[in-house]
Amino acid sequence: MNWIRITTLSVAIAWIPLAANWNADAANAKILFTVSGPFGTVHGNFAGLKATIKFDESDLPGSSISASVDANTVSTGIGLRNHDLKKEEWLNTDKYPQISFHSTKIEKTNAGFKAVGELSLKGITKPMEILFTFSPKANTGVFKGQFVIKRQDYNLLSTSKSVGNEISISLEVPAKK
User: Dihedral angle at the C-alpha atoms of 74, 79, 82, 86, nearest 10 degrees?
Assistant: First the structure.
């Protein structure tokens, strides 16, 4: 009789949906940012993405995203500016080499999904919501997202009046199962 219960339980567990593990293609991922500067909009990017993505549209409670980028990879196309952004007033990459996000839940929205979690930048952790879409194709897919941070919330040269307070960040992360 016990083997019937064990078999029934095993079959029931097999039908529980599990979020799929997606491997981010770090080499082709795009982590871009823009901010208003004294001479126009500054465009830049980060590299060195490391991510653990568990995602299934039919199992959002079992889905999660943890990701980080190497703050030392900040690039705006201007070497002197890149050097300045790594200094203590901005990213302080010697002390805080990683920028990271960890979701606590993922929700469905009208336009796609929302990852609710925490963003850690320059030793400061704040709640963050990242709106994103996912376009699957067989065993591959692309996660695209965007969010805005306030520069002063993360003590990024908080005294500067010539740099905008809002930094827009967009993500495009190809992945495969």
Answer: 110
